[in-house]
Amino acid sequence: MTETRGSTHAKRAAYDLRQRIVKGELPGGTRLYEVALAEELEISRTPVREAMSRLAEEGLLERARGGGFVVRSFTYADVLDAIELRGVLEGTALRLAAEAGVSSEKIQHIKGLIAQIDAGFSAAGDPPDLEAYSGLNEQFHDDIADLCPSGIVRSELQRVKSLPFASPSAFVFRRRESQTMTQSIVIAQAHHHAMIEAIERREGARAEALAREHALIARRNLEEKALAPGEGNPALALIVD
Amino acid sequence: MTETRGSTHAKRAAYDLRQRIVKGELPGGTRLYEVALAEELEISRTPVREAMSRLAEEGLLERARGGGFVVRSFTYADVLDAIELRGVLEGTALRLAAEAGVSSEKIQHIKGLIAQIDAGFSAAGDPPDLEAYSGLNEQFHDDIADLCPSGIVRSELQRVKSLPFASPSAFVFRRRESQTMTQSIVIAQAHHHAMIEAIERREGARAEALAREHALIARRNLEEKALAPGEGNPALALIVD
DNA sequence: GCCGCGCCAATTGTATACATTTCAGTGTAT
DNA sequence: ATACACTGAAATGTATACAATTGGCGCGGC
Prior knowledge:
Strand order of the largest sheet of chain A: 1-3-2
Protein name (chains A, B): HTH gntR-type domain-containing protein
Oligomer: homodimer
Pfam families (chains A, B): FCD, GntR
InterPro entries (chains A, B): GntR_C, TF_FadR/GntR_C, Tscrpt_reg_HTH_GntR, WH-like_DNA-bd_sf, WH_DNA-bd_sf
Strand content of chain A: under 5%
Keywords (chains A, B): DNA-binding, Transcription, Transcription regulation
Number of strands of chain A: 3
Structural class of chain A: mainly alpha
GO molecular function (chains A, B): DNA binding; DNA-binding transcription factor activity
Largest interface: A-B, 22 and 22 residues
């Protein structure tokens, strides 16, 4: 089979299928046939089934009536909703963290991350390195979610973030698009500062509202990009209509 | 194998395992062994694996490192958090419904359900029939979630509700416990009225707040019951500590 | 005594043959 | 013309043998 990472055939097949789905090679609604995939990947049906099960757990596939799996369809509206839902869940995570209180060590750790992002802004105000920002931003969102004392909330948030277009780092711009991008990042970073401050001061409602507003930046960026497709983000390939 | 419903061995096995987990016969942390289960259910390993996959999708099992599945552990705190999370998601669903607007037909349908619950209250103020209330209450929660225009939010809410202790109908009292139960139901029903009114008037924030407060009733009821276990709710059997 | 190494049993991973179900196509009867 | 039942290919469901991996236990060396 194609050289993809993983220790078992099932994991490799899952990786392979996941890539194909995210790239849009397997559009929403496509039915997956065990035999065809098994032949294509040069493995037996058993690991193919296993792989499909795993992707169903991730929410990328749905079980079809009468057995089998279908690639889950995501409409453009679904993508916007998933981003908003991420904001709601992040907001809940931050509110619970604020209400429960967070140790100063953890607060300092987050502040360190934020400082790293700050350091990426030059004094001149030109756009920071997008690769670096994307990585740090994702790290920030992961670590801030870990502040939430509820494992249930953490895991459901993680679940929503695993949808390829709902991740906080999904729609970081590909190229430098005028001032829009820089401005968005400046605002987002202001949110980052405010979020940790709200948590530190145990202002739960404020933390929650900030997380929601923060997600709306991602949503707005997507809405603006969608109007001018251009070389669209690959994670959008799986949108069906 | 034991006479459980389902058309395939895998579905029967999933049903059987689900029952055992919810009843607490398979406590959190228990590792499930394919061979043992297969012999016990008198089927082969294949449908057992299939059943475990399905339960993993439901969130009742987790994949263990090195393969296999483990019964997911739910602490008492997890149960409380899951109820609160249900409130958050129901709140989001209602808010989105209110913001988008809902047709008067659907509003009337919900109002009809509420009226049916109202009819269960006698003029004397004695407790309504719990079976009937539980059924109508569950129906209300299902139907009101359907008002949400976002399929993503609906499905994630459905997912959380599928946790056996987070369902709106999970902790309806078993016997008539003084006035506590009656009072709770009266308050809950007031919330029901207010929710649909908020949606009708497109008051999103109010609808959201109501849904959260509504879930807190369920949470408080559980907290009070937990202090005096008695003949506890069976859905609580899967709590590990 | 303790650590590491390797073996063995237990467990999951995989392939494959066979059974069953599903669904579309087709024919017939009404 | 429509509804229904039959048919058969194609798909998933199941059993089972075998392979590979894991994890624990004991043996040996240090």
